[in-house]
Amino acid sequence: MKKQSSRQEDTTRNTHIDHGALTREAKEISRESRIIAQESVGNQTFEDRIRQRCSIAVGDFSMAELLRFLHDPIPSGIRALSRGSPIITDIRMVAVGIQKNGHHSPILCALDFGTELAFSQGITRTSAGFIALQEKMTDAIIVIGNAPSALLSLCSIVKERVIPALIIGTPVGFVNASESKKLLRTLPLPSISTEGTRGGTPVAVAAMNELIEIFCERRDD
Known about the structure:
Elements: H1 24-41, H2 46-58, H3 62-66, E1 67-70, H4 73-83, E2 87-89, H5 92-97, E3 107-109, H6 115-121, H7 125-132, E4 141-144, H8 148-159, E5 166-169, H9 177-184, E6 191-194, H10 201-220
Parallel strand pairs: 2-3, 2-4, 4-5, 5-6
Antiparallel strand pairs: 1-6
Helix pairs in contact: 1-2, 2-10, 4-10, 6-7, 7-8, 8-9
């Protein structure tokens, strides 16, 4: 398994049940899924934890090999959550999927902003939303699971010196998805992304939720 980050994280716990698993059956499914994922992916680092959860989310362990971690994204994300920094998403499905308990970060969706700008400039609503939200992006966590156009716009905004704490960029598709993630990986800031055309909302949500799990564990310890 490739390691892209500059340093290894602390050893993870041997047994882990997702925070959102509330009933006995849900906890058992979570436990069994984790055991299977740990055997396939490994369980030495926090990055492995995110690889596990993203693989479970899509039912395919090849996803673990597609994930890229640059510039210590997990510590940066933990610090942002500890500050209660905003979590900004591209679409509502991502916003709905992100775990609401265990942190105090507000969750904003780009689709709720910039509608007039989208129609006046003929750009996608997600792109316009990120343009409208750029004043809120400094030290925020950005989670893009669907829209390559939003990630391309975000990369342009970042080049103008708006610096998020972390970008999770996993847009999916055959038009600009791979290119937008390649561009993200050229930026000197913390990011989690996927190689190629694969990714999507389940991957972005899984990565964010596992980061929240790690944050909760470290805070409680």
